[in-house]
UniProtKB/TrEMBL annotation:
Residues in Acyl-CoA dehydrogenase/oxidase N-terminal domain copies: 14-114
SUPFAM superfamilies the record matches: Acyl-CoA dehydrogenase C-terminal domain-like, Acyl-CoA dehydrogenase NM domain-like
Protein name: Dibenzothiophene desulfurization enzyme C
InterPro entries per UniProt: Acyl-CoA_dehydrogenase, Acyl-CoA_DH_C, Acyl-CoA_Oxase/DH_mid-dom, Acyl-CoA_Oxase/DH_mid-dom_sf, AcylCo_DH-like_C, AcylCoA_DH/ox_N, AcylCoA_DH/ox_N_sf, AcylCoA_DH/oxidase_NM_dom_sf
GO annotation, cellular component aspect: cytoplasm
Domain Acyl-CoA dehydrogenase C-terminal: 236-368
Source species of the chain: Streptomyces jeddahensis
GO biological process: fatty acid beta-oxidation using acyl-CoA dehydrogenase
Gene name for this UniProt entry: soxC_3
Keywords: Flavoprotein, Oxidoreductase
Domain Acyl-CoA oxidase/dehydrogenase middle: 127-209
Entry's Gene Ontology molecular function annotations: acyl-CoA dehydrogenase activity; flavin adenine dinucleotide binding; oxidoreductase activity, acting on paired donors, with incorporation or reduction of molecular oxygen, reduced flavin or flavoprotein as one donor, and incorporation of one atom of oxygen
Family: Belongs to the HpaH/HsaA monooxygenase family.
């Protein structure tokens, strides 16, 4: 039976316990691409995937700050497992923003029972990432059908429900919630990225899939008012990258202490006592600590904005805080995961260690959207007072 977590503290404690367990075979799962089905079942049974369900519906309704820490802990253990729930929690927010009372009642009960959301968002053939070709085609009885192809569908292979972004007949963005076994829906495990190898971020094919009208949520309404929805989604991504950075730092440090040799000119008996190694490792530690601090601050900014949903200034500050956290997490994950090799030496590149997975995971996950635009928005606000756009990705 699925457990129901009651408090923020219980959520973090549960995540820490599972993270320690998941970390033990993370390198093996990456090396042999063993999909984490059993681990995701444990996540569901633990109640962690229902922690953002509102208290009014029996959930813990944890703070954004707590959710960020949960994702960071899981990602430090295995960043594929940390990333898979990103879209799950994203679509819980979609329901909170614009779901009907009946939709919320139904899906919150599903979440508390351990059901999982996947995603079918991105499309390869459109002009850019914010454009969609998939459309809801209206039927005489008021329902719809969906036809199209979605890519990078992280979590869909493991999901009970697969929400799909599609345009309605008025070209407005909607989210259609489909059961994984809907007629005409096929999930293809064709993800072959160099990193995040076990997210199963493959293809979802939609061939005249029937969609009842009561499974469609008007997502476009989110962006017609002050919102932190976009910041929330980016915040979880930042937590994944921050977890990767911490994992690379800690695993790299362990290898420096255990297998690295000092440089002959240093006079040190151990690599971990070599002054230049200590200095460089301190710089890497600073990057990780900065990312963790900015992540925590971003979670607090989202929580503050949620307390005053009509306050445009608080919504803008949440977006800026998340933008900073995302940019710093990008830098920390890529830099630390790369530079620890030089501190360990040639032994670090042997395949059996699996140290390279942290860089591959960081390089893959940080490509979701460009860091250069995070810096652009930060600079434009600091210099010209221009708030980030309400486009769902800032």
């Amino acid at each position: 039976m699925t457990h129901v977590i009651a408090t923020d503290a219980e959520a973090i404690e549960t995540a820490a316990h599972l993270a320690a367990k998941f970390a033990r075979e993370a390198a093996l799962r990456d090396a042999e691409r063993i999909l984490p089905r059993a681990e995701l079942d444990e996540l569901s049974e633990s109640g962690l995937l229902a922690i953002t369900v509102p208290r009014s519906h029996g959930g813990a309704e944890v703070s954004a700050r707590t959710l960020g820490e949960v994702i960071r802990l899981l990602s430090a253990a295995d960043s594929s497992i940390g990333q898979i729930p990103q879209n799950h929690f994203f679509f819980v927010e979609v329901l909170k923003e614009n779901g009907t009372p009946e939709q919320r009642d139904f899906f919150y009960a599903e979440l508390l029972a351990g059901r999982r959301f996947g995603n079918a968002l991105a499309e390869k053939g459109t002009q850019h990432a914010l454009a969609f070709a998939t459309r809801l085609q209206p039927q005489p009885d008021g329902s719809y059908v969906l036809t199209g192809t979605k890519n990078y569908s992280t979590g869909a292979l493991f999901a009970d429900w697969i929400p799909v972004f599609a345009l309605d007949p008025e070209d407005r963005l909607t989210a259609a919630f489909l059961p994984h076994d809907a007629p005409g829906l096929t999930v293809v495990d064709d993800w072959d990225g160099i990193g995040q190898r076990t997210t199963a971020s493959g293809t979802v094919r939609l061939e005249h899939v029937p969609v009842p009208a009561d499974r469609v949520v008007p997502h476009h309404l989110t962006f017609e008012r002050p919102e932190v929805f976009g910041a929330f989604g980016q915040y979880i991504h930042a937590a994944v990258d921050t977890g990767i950075a911490r994992a690379a730092l800690e695993e790299g440090g362990e290898l420096i202490r255990t297998i690295a040799r000092p440089w002959g000119e240093s006079g040190a008996d151990r690599a971990s006592d070599e002054p230049l190694v200590i200095q460089k490792f301190g710089e890497l530690s600073l990057l990780v600590r900065s990312a963790e601090a900015l992540l925590d601050r971003a979670g607090g900014a989202i929580d503050a904005a949620r307390e005053a949903p009509a306050d445009e200034d608080l919504a803008a500050e949440a977006s800026l805080a998340v933008t900073a956290a995302r940019a710093q997490a990008d830098t920390a994950a890529l830099t630390v995961a790369s530079d620890v090799f030089a501190l360990i030496g040639t032994r670090s590149v042997t395949g059996g260690l699996g140290l390279d997975r942290h860089w591959r995971n960081a390089r893959t996950h940080t490509l979701h959207d460009p860091r250069r635009w995070k810096i652009q928005h930060l600079g434009n606000h600091a210099l010209n007072g221009v708030n980030p756009p309400a486009n769902g990705i800032v």
